[in-house]
Amino acid sequence: GAGVSQTPSNKVTEKGKYVELRCDPISGHTALYWYRQSLGQGPEFLIYFQGTGAADDSGLPNDRFFAVRPEGSVSTLKIQRTERGDSAVYLCASSLVVAGGPDTGELFFGEGSRLTVL
Amino acid sequence: GEDVEQSLFLSVREGDSSVINCTYTDSSSTYLYWYKQEPGAGLQLLTYIFSNMDMKQDQRLTVLLNKKDKHLSLRIADTQTGDSAIYFCAESTLGSGTYKYIFGTGTRLKVLA
């Protein structure tokens, strides 16, 4: 499709399990972001990729969270030993922004993956 | 650290103007944005303003930026029921070496018919 695609749209898991969330950005977008949105809150920054490398992972809450983007396109957010507090909607966004470029940096968001940890 | 704050709720009557306010703390912000989120959907960009501007108008939308007070507002003229959604203010420091976008908590706009 033409937009940012995220799978699964809903994931229910048990405490302690491992979860992978996938993001397929808009073709050609070099920048990819992961955000977490808890109920009644705004998106909270997790990690930003420029190409294949994580340019800024300062938002990852702890070492249970990890993300990869091996070929500079699809990204996977991985959560180990899930906890109930990880329950949220995980949003992925992509952008054409490049370092030093003039673009206004519009973020194109997917519809999110809703994670529920029981 | 960076922080973006918004009031949580706003209720207006159809046809009236809505004004949604936002304050931010990062003085190095280069762009400020308004995103709209409808139920069950991702965020969509409504409009943006570059930090060296103080006003931008786009059809029914007017963005005002007071950089000295770090205050951003979004005015929606002739508000319609279809404008009911959550509106997020966001700031970025594009062009300054980092590309982290910080979002506010969102303002839920309810338009009464």
State the gist of this model.
The complex is a heterodimer of chains A (118) and B (113). Chain A is built from no helices and 11 strands.
What would your notes on this structure say?
- The complex is a heterodimer of chains A (118) and B (113).
- Chain A has 118 residues and is mostly beta strands.
- Chain A is built from no helices and eleven strands.
- The model of chain A has no long low-confidence stretch (mean pLDDT 91).
- In chain B, a hairpin with a 4-residue loop joins strand 7 and strand 8.
- In chain B, strands 2, 4, 5, 9, 10 and 11 form a six-stranded mixed beta sheet that branches.
- Chain B contains no helices and eleven strands.
- Chain B has strands at 4-6, 9-13, 18-24, 31-37, 43-50, 55-58, 61-66, 71-76, 85-92, 102-103, 107-112.
- With 113 residues, chain B is mostly beta strands.
- Classes of the chains: A mainly beta (118), B mainly beta (113).
- The interface between A and B is medium-sized, with 33 and 28 residues.
Assembly annotation: heterodimer
Kindly estimate the percentage of residues of chain B that lie in beta strands according to DSSP: over 45%
Give Rg of chain A in angstroms.
Answer: 14 Å
Percent helix range of chain B: under 10%
The value of Rg of chain B in angstroms is: 14 Å
How would you state the average pLDDT of chain B, rounded?
A: 90
Average pLDDT number of chain A = 91
Q: What's the shape of chain A?
A: globular
Low-confidence stretches of chain B: none
Global geometry of chain B: globular
Number of helices of chain B: 0
**SSE string of chain A, helices as H and strands as E:** EEEEEEEEEEE
Q: Largest sheet of chain A, if any?
A: 7 strands, mixed
Largest interface comes to: A-B, 33 and 28 residues
- State the separation between the terminal residues of chain B, measured CA to CA: 40 Å
List the helices and strands and how they pair.
The complex is a heterodimer of chains A (118) and B (113).
Chain A: E1 5-7, E2 10-13, E3 19-24, E4 31-37, E5 44-50, E6 53-56, E7 65-68, E8 75-79, E9 88-95, E10 108-109, E11 113-117
Parallel strand pairs in A: 2-11
Antiparallel strand pairs in A: 1-3, 3-8, 4-5, 4-9, 5-6, 7-8, 9-10, 9-11
Chain B: E1 4-6, E2 9-13, E3 18-24, E4 31-37, E5 43-50, E6 55-58, E7 61-66, E8 71-76, E9 85-92, E10 102-103, E11 107-112
Parallel strand pairs in B: 2-11
Antiparallel strand pairs in B: 1-3, 3-8, 4-5, 4-9, 6-7, 7-8, 9-10, 9-11
